[in-house]
Each structure stands twice: as structure tokens, then as C-alpha cells.
Design the sequence.
């Protein structure tokens, strides 16, 4: 399967597993999981034919490792980015002292006024990878990267979660913990 087809399937999976599982007749189980077999059947019933091998390829080749299989590979989920109501069941973790967030320069005034807010998602997404955050920012316009003083946030009582693909999650990053990266 070519890269364009895999990307199309990945986008479809993101929509279903993060936002609208009901669009194909699925319900997210605790942790955000759905049966891989049920997902393939739901996709097929809705005009997207995906083989188990292709699903494996989409999961393993996804540039940001957005999806994961359960240990026995019978279930699949999106690791983060949900707007659908779900408890991902991540445990609190202590982040590195410094984290990054990619955005567009046109959002800076608002961000420095109210901080990073989760919007319609469950969490604000942060990373240890500055370069990845530049790419994230490019999706929204002229990119910029913000540094987050995660060490001070933890000292001040803020909680963080971490996903299996090393995305750090928190409910809100108040402006005092932010500065524009060099």
C-alpha cells in the first residue's frame, strides 16, 4: 500500500478513535480501546476496506505513533488527542524539567494571556522534542515553539501524564510557565 493510502487510513482512524467512534457504530471501552476485529468490520461496513496487515502497517509506520495495540494485539486505541469522552487510564508521571509545545505565531497573544488550554481535547499536548514541535506549529501557520517550565509546574502542584509515544499531557499550562523558545 502506498504512503498516500496509509495516510488516508491513518486520518480515518484518528477521526474514529479520537473523536467519533459512533460514526461507524463503535463505542470506546475504558482506556479508549476498541476491538481490532470490530474496528476492521466497522470500517468495511462503512466503505473503507482495511486488512489486518494494513492496520498493523498503519500503526507501526505512523510518524507520530498515534495508535497502539494492546499487548495481545486484540484491541487498538489512539494514544491521545481525544475529544470523545474517554478515560485513557494513564498514571501521573514526573516530566522532564523542560517541555515544548508547537503552535503558530498568530496564537501567541492569546496564549500569553490565558496560557495553553486544552480546547475540545482532554489535555494540552507537550513534547521533549523541539524539532517535532516545529512541525506541529507549521500545521497552523508560521511556526513557533514554546518552552514549558514543567519542573516548576510540578513544584506548584500541576499534574502530568505521559503516553506510550512520549507525549506529555496536562490540563492547562498557565502563562507564567511559558516562554518562546529560541
Sequence:
Amino acid at each position: 500500500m502506498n504512503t498516500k493510502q496509509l495516510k488516508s487510513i491513518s486520518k480515518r482512524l484518528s477521526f474514529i478513535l479520537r473523536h467519533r467512534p459512533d460514526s461507524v457504530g463503535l463505542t470506546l471501552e475504558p482506556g479508549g480501546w476498541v476491538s481490532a476485529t470490530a474496528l476492521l468490520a466497522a470500517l468495511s461496513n462503512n466503505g473503507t476496506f482495511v486488512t489486518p496487515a494494513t492496520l498493523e502497517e498503519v500503526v507501526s509506520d505512523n510518524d507520530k505513533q498515534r495508535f497502539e495495540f494492546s499487548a495481545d494485539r486484540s484491541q487498538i486505541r489512539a494514544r491521545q488527542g481525544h475529544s470523545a469522552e474517554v478515560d485513557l487510564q494513564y498514571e501521573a508521571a514526573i516530566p522532564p524539567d523542560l517541555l515544548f509545545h508547537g503552535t503558530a505565531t498568530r496564537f501567541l497573544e492569546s496564549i500569553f494571556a490565558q496560557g495553553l488550554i486544552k480546547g475540545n481535547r482532554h489535555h494540552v499536548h507537550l513534547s521533549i522534542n523541539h524539532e517535532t514541535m516545529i512541525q506541529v506549529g507549521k500545521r497552523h501557520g508560521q511556526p513557533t515553539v514554546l518552552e514549558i517550565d514543567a519542573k516548576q509546574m510540578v513544584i506548584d502542584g500541576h499534574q502530568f501524564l505521559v503516553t506510550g509515544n512520549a507525549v506529555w499531557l496536562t490540563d492547562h499550562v498557565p502563562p507564567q510557565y511559558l516562554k518562546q523558545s529560541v
